[in-house]
User: Fold these one by one.
Assistant:
Number 1:
Amino acid sequence: MTNTERFWETKRLSELSPSEWERLCDGCGLCCLHKLRDEDTDTLMFTDVACRLLDLNTCQCASYGERFRKVPDCIALTPKMVHEIDWLPPSCAYRLMDEGKPLPDWHPLLTGNRESVHQAGISGRGRIISERYAGPLERHIVDWPGEDPLRPPASARPRPKKRARKAPRRV
Ligand code: SF4
Ligand code: SF4
């Protein structure tokens, strides 16, 4: 693989072509999980509840081309957003690039295999539920989407004291 092909090592997020931007996504599907915020402390909490359009097996959007029409609060990431938002998982390739970190060895760009993100246990496959069936989000708070897979699990996150609200979803 040439340096030109390893664009994630030579470019900034803002310099990526549309094709490179799409290829950078590892396909984990974790950004399509609902998030909650504590109304008092603004603490972010992850859930294992997926957007209704997420294919729970492939962890891909089932209607990517029409996602903004079908899910109005789906968000298209930009380099500026990647830098500012706090809800992308630590394993997210956009977040890693923004932080100047290398891609992990299981990333499909390095393995040449879109399944490698699932085989490494990084994606949501096998541990997420659709919002169609989940019921109240407050019953689905989990830590793992926010944990760095290269580090030991973090201690339990604080639970909401009052009714929490949804954080924005994205691509
Ligand atoms: S969390 Fe990041 S790498 Fe994973 S699917 Fe979402 S945008 Fe792609
Ligand atoms: S959050 Fe957006 S990209 Fe993800 S499954 Fe839902 S509509 Fe598709």
Note: The two ends are 28 Å apart (CA to CA).
Number 2:
Amino acid sequence: MSLDTRKKDFEMFQEDIFNKISPLIVSSKINKKLLNNFNNSVIKYLSKSATKSYKLKSEKSIINFYDRNIDKLNFITPNGAVVPKKETSKEFNLITKNFIKIIKSLNIQDKIVRFHIPLNIRIKFSNIPQSFYLRDRATEKPHSDSWAGESSNCVNFHIPIFGDVNNNKMEFFYPKKLNENWLRPLKNFQTGFKYKKYYKKIHFKTLKGNLIISDFATLHRTIRKKNCKTRISLDTTFEIKRTSKLNISKIHNDRKNEYISYKKYEKLGDKNKYFFNDSIYNSINQDKGFKHFANFKIVKNEKYKS
Ligand SMILES: [Fe+2]
């Protein structure tokens, strides 16, 4: 697949709904009602994860609590993903259901082939230990998620939700040229640094209530400006229809179970539900290779017990 083919495929994000930031990056303002429901489900999820209750009821109380208890919250990965657990399955299903409503409002369903699951709710603290920046797949290093073993046919989907989204944010890089072979699983993100000279930084404001979609041929990273505060955001990925038959999508074996068809995906959180096996009382294993941190199965609603 060439850069031109990718640009052409990206035209599926049409101008009546999306705002073109570059030929491989678009944004869109989320419908107010859908956003409100989605944000409320994120608050419930984060409150339940941290306090086993719904006592944290606002953006401010969530961020204050997480900032104050940063050392005690053992369900968060070094990259900031708030891992869904047995005790928070119900709340995570609700987020998924509300997220799918947002996807449906974008009029792109017939162009989505399959989804990578589960989505990530991330808390990017204002400060993280220096050692976290040095990790092989630290999201603070510029990268394509294909380097982390995901299908190179995918696009990234990002929503800045709460907190200091102006100073603690995602930054994007656009390819001046592209070799598809760059978009393969790499041992670590620093292996990909040699490609960065072919990329240029794209400047734009990431706003709350907006979503951003970027092709896997772009690079992204988290940046923290001086004195920034904590940010909460969503990220996930999905595969779009490609016109070129010559694509070389290389999914890492560890990730094969993490893809489902859009048809199945749209029932998630509703007719079908996630069930997460691990308890919130157990710590996360430090390294699981390429695999997603959450251990889950999908069950029919009737069989579901929260
Ligand atoms: Fe990423």
Note: Residues 32-51 form the longest helix (20 residues).
Number 3:
Amino acid sequence: MAISKNEIAATMTRDQAARAGVISAPQAQEVITSNSKRLFGFTRKMLPPAGSLPTEPKLYIYSVSEYGDIVNLGPGFPLYEVKACPEGEEYGEPCVIPPIIFFEEAKVDVTEHTFHSGPQIVEAILKIGPGMNASWDRRKVGWFVSNTNPPSAEDVRRATTLYIQECTRLLQEGNRYASANQLLEINETHRRAAKYLGQKVEWSKPLQQMRECPGCGENVRVGIIWHAFPMGCGYIFDRESYEEHFAPAPAHQKPAPPQPTK
Ligand SMILES: [Zn+2]
């Protein structure tokens, strides 16, 4: 009866084992390595060696606004971070896009390294080009692409003009909602637009939390001490603070506090 390979490995010298068809650990490692392209039923293709891909010309995405974001183009892609423009600067740090990007994707039982050009990646990040809805265009939030680092003054000016146009549109929209009393339609993008344009508008602060006054049923701000006269019904929410700030004090202690005005 033939002896098992385990027995051979345990009892023979390495040469004897090799002749008997048993491989050593280093040899096994070698076989695994040479076959490791085949994993879980997928045949993986190897990337071209690092250093063999061109790295120029790069493209640069900048933001002229307070909008920055980490953009995820999907599985297989690296994350791209477009950095917000710091306050007082013209534009932020660039997001650098190399000229060629490979990403690995599964096709039936083979993974492919699909090629994408720098300009294609830029279009995907800015959400422009074929198949993209115009309203997604990230140039409206102040992003732009440049061939150079730093960008040309002309590119910065064009991007800023576009962003100001969009902020103006949002400011007008916010004003329309406010005048129609549709305050819930006003969101952070409207407020940021007003702030960027330096416009002080009624609606530029987030909505204050409201509650119903138990005294009269009117909506009042959360945290008020009392529903002050003459607009309010006089309901006291916080007796202690009310006594301290509003209740008439004896004449010898302190002068009567000023009546709160709305
Ligand atoms: Zn009230």
Note: The chain has three domains: 59-151, 155-204, 208-262.
Number 4:
Amino acid sequence: MSGRESVQSDCIVAPRQETTEASDLSGETTFVPGPETEAEYRRALGCFGTGVTVVTHMTENGPIAMTANSFASVSLDPPLVLWCAAYRSRRHALFAQARHYAIHVMRDDQLHLARHFARRGHDFSVADWTPNAEGQPVLSDSLASFECVRDAVHPAGDHSIIVGHVLRCSVHPGSGLLFKRGQYGGFSDL
Ligand SMILES: Cc1cc2nc3c(=O)[nH]c(=O)nc-3n(C[C@H](O)[C@H](O)[C@H](O)COP(=O)(O)O)c2cc1C
């Protein structure tokens, strides 16, 4: 990650006696995820650095988008990808019911789009986009885009796992935007 990241120790988890309360000995914390340890659990998950995507969909009332870092490849043949949408999001139902949508991997100079679509999913005034063959909004110049048709939607706790079959894929030159420990950054070689 770039110098924009706050540097903390790596997350190396050794077997320890589990507790329901977060405990901290020698800088190491072990706990059972639950209501009292939600903040610690979020911190543990934040140790896993990810890329950042913006998922778009065309509704009856215009385009919507959501910033998401839960994106993952599922299968190469057939080409399946997933992302997870939180039930608590006001945009959840629109994405969970969507037949077509597009997933865009953000470049490091598209931080403004990631920030914008985390807050204002219906406002496309800041984005260049064109409709694809299925009428879905495809953002210009993302690092990669995956134009999808719904394959499956699985309930999973407080999220839906949305699996898409990739109909079309584009790749552009550039470097990816990354997200780790609640902060955005970039990639640098070791
Ligand atoms: C870096 C980043 C990654 C995110 N990843 C996800 C995600 O994978 N799934 C999700 O449901 N929300 C994710 N969010 C939150 C949504 O982008 C959005 O902020 C949230 O849905 C807001 O709720 P609303 O739709 O009710 O306005 C992410 C936000 C940020 C900043």
Note: The chain has three helices and 14 strands.
